[in-house]
Amino acid sequence: MKKWVLITNDLPEAAFKTLSAKYHVTWNKKPLSEAQLVSRVKPYHALLSTLSDPISRKVLEAGINLRCVSNYAVGYNNIDLSAAQEHSIQVTNTPDVLTEATADIAWALILSCARRVPEGEKMVRAGRFKGWHPLLLLGQDLRGKTLGIYGFGRIGKAVARRGRGWNMKVLYHQRHRERPSEERAHRAQYVPFERLLRASDILSVNCPLTPETRHRFTSREFKKMKRTGIFINSARGPVHREADLARALSKKWIFSAGLDVYEHEPQIHPKLLRLKNAVLLPHLGSATVETRSQMAILAARNIDRVLSDKPPLTPVPKTTK
Ligand code: GLV
Ligand code: GLV
Fold this sequence. Notes:
With 321 residues, the chain is of the alpha/beta class. The chain contains 13 helices and twelve strands. It is globular and about 70 Å long. One glyoxylic acid binds at residues 51, 73-75, 98, 285-286.
C-alpha cells in the first residue's frame, strides 16, 4: 500500500517529483500553524517540514502514523526531538548541501558591515551622492584581522576558510575542542569564550540553537567586544538578545552587526530597523537555486529511505535527555 507524505510548505519541485513516484503526496503551499498541523497530520507516514513549522510534541503525538520528520534545513530547533524519540519517529535534516551557501551569506554580511555597503547603496538611490569625498563612509579593513567563530561546525569552518583570502587569523570557541589535526587543517585556534569576545575583530555566530547557546550574546558580551568589532549572526536569532544588540549598536559599543536571523523571527526589534550600523537580511543563508534544490532532493530521499526501512542519509543526532 502506498504511504502518505505531507510537504508542509512551498519549496523546489524536486522534492515533490522525487516522492510522488512512490507515495501519495500532499503538497501544502502555505505555512501551517501548530493547530493546523495537529488537525492534518494523522494520515501521514512522513512530513517534509521547514524550519518555521512548529513540530511540537502535540503535532508528533497527533501523528499516530508518523515514522519520519524530514526537516528542510540544517537546524532542527523547530522539532521536539525528545517527543520524536519517544514515539520512534526518525528526524532528519539537510546538512552539507547548504554549507557553502550559508558561509557565503555570512561573508556577504561581513563585507557589507565592514565596508558599509548598504549605507552607500541607500545613499546613491536617495540622490545623496554628491561626489567622491576623502571621509565618505569609512569602513574597516579585513586584511590580517582576527575572525572569531562561535560554533566551529561545518558552516563555521567554511566561514573560516574564506577568511584565509583576507589573511585573517582564525579563533574559535564551542563546547568541544577540535582535534589538533583538525585545528591545523583549518589553521584555527581554540580560545575560551571570553577571549573570543575580546580578541575578535569579526565575531561570527555559526552554532545551532540549544538551551546552552540561547542568549549567549547579551549586553555583557557586547561590552567586552572591541569598539571596532563586527557581530555577525547567520545561525539562529535567539543566540543573541536582540534588545541588547540594538543597545550595543546605538551606544557604539561595537562598530556594526550583520544579521540573517532574528530572535523573534520574522519580527525584528524596531530599534534595529532604525540603526544605520545594522545590516539586515531576511534569512537567506541557504537561498540559492542550486542549494535549495539539493536540499529538496536530500529531504525527499531521507523520507524514502525511512519509509523503505533503510537508514536515512542524514539523521539528526539522538538527544541524551
Ligand atoms: C537555515 O537556517 C537552516 O537551518 O537550514
Ligand atoms: C579612488 O577611487 C581612488 O582612485 O583612490
